[in-house]
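Dear support,

We are seeing what looks like truncated structure output for some complexes. This example has two components. We would appreciate it if you could run it in full and send us the complete token output so we can diff it against ours.
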Amino acid sequence: MIDFVQNTIDGVMIGSSYALLALGFTLIFGVMRRLNLSYGPSIMIGAYLGTLVYVQLSAGPLVVVAVTVIGAVLAGVYVERLCFAPMAAGAGIASMVSSFAIWMQLEQAAILVLPQHTYPFPPLATVAPLELGPFLLRVDHLIMLAAALALSAAVYLLLYRSRFGLALRAIIENPTAAHLVGINVKAAVMLAFALASAVGGIAGYLVLAADQQVTPMFGMWATFKGLIAMMIGGLGSIPGAIVGGLVLGVVEAHSQWHFGPQVRDLVAYLLLFACLVLRPGGLLGRAPPMREPAFGRRGA
Amino acid sequence: MDDYLVGVLSNIGIISFVALSAYLLLLTGEISFGQQAFFAIGAYAAGIATALWGWPLSAALGWGAATAGAAAILVGIPTLRLHGLYFAIATLAFAEMVRLLFELFRYQLTIDGELVGPNGSDGFRGIRYIFENDVSSLQFLVLIYLLLIIALVAFMLLERSRLGVTFRMIGEDATLAELNGVAVARIKVLAAGLAGALAGIGGGLYAHLTTYVEPRIFDVMLGVHSLAYGLIGGLGTALGPLLGVVIDIGLLESVRVFAGYRMIIFGGLVAVLLIVRPRGLLDERAVHYLSRVWRR
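Here is the complete output from our reference environment:
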């Protein structure tokens, strides 16, 4: 019983990092109706720049956070310019494939700059874990959970209580009509992309600070965990991102405890597959339209 | 021919099977990130057949193709009602599941006093059919290209057949095809099965060429590459994906100058081509133009 509760606690904690990753993912999907698979690798670019200033200039944590977020935003905007802005309306699949191609590019660029496999990342909190009766709580994990809740609340407020959010929601409803009433659609979309990358950058910083190291696998890890969490919760839904992240974290923690890390990953993909087949809209999202426009039609 | 050239050409031939497999699904309008799963299934099935059961190579390759095709049909049925990015992510999830299952898969027999067979994440060693039967690497190369030519001829015939037209029709507009009386669901399962079998043949050849497979090879990057080959080379003809493979493996991977920058060039190439030529270099228009020039 104690193990069960401790596993659930650990699951919620790691799940909050998945929720943070899913939040940025879902923001991009909500605005563009497109998947950005380069999301994780662009966070990794930020993280690599962060570790570079940490290792080379022994910068403090605040500088590392700033550099990580700025790097993630710059890489995110690069992805948006190359994979999303030039694609015709309705060519969402082309954007997805293109962002996968850019993923390879970003990963190789990171390896070219820092060729070792592992680099240290500055820890967030080195204090001992809190003890609550028989249970242990890591302080950096608590910060992660608090950040997940605070950031999703902030994004929610931004979308539903600000003029910028109103403009974004207008674009989601109908980009042409939004353009006609004077909204600068291109600028708003780019800003949303930058915002999502910034959220991703913060998520990446918190995860890596808890792990205290960064490897080239981080990009793939971030994309897959964020993607699975978002898909389970519901594409484009902010509460869905939180719920999906926490569900994924708890399921992973329990399956790791009982069956080991390989089965843990297997269960995560099984959850994603089952969710797509049985409930493609996710737990809290809307079901997708049956037929989306094909991509790159012939003769078009 | 020197060994390096034979190696590169063999690689190009084998990867072409996965590229053709992804291309077949692209024709029906679906993006699959998961064709590497069927490549893996074909590799393991064919390897087990020769190394553990003592089958001849031809039967083993057929068995690999059949297993991969059957697996593709089994996945095709539940994922049928998905479309676009949902289908793509479902195939991605499936392929990763297959890879992780092979990490856990153990099936070993003692052959000539030695344990042979898949051993989880340590991989599957000792698929020595071509050494035991004195097949030279040149002969194996000929076998690869013979099978590839058969596949290409089958594609050419398919493109002229009613079935090929139906595939493209579904790719253009599945609803319209359905309204015209095409059994879209059944045709899509058929396409998925054929694509799986094609990748399975490639996998069987791969296992026997390298004599060793491990689950790590069949990761998502292989799937994305094979998809990208069709998108670079073109969706107008089955030669399109082959052109993509030649550009990537023949040029970027094998020429020294590009070492270390392969992914940067390849990734950028895919992204730029998707903007300027969304259906690849050899798209339908280019193929039509070339065939008119050819006939003149």
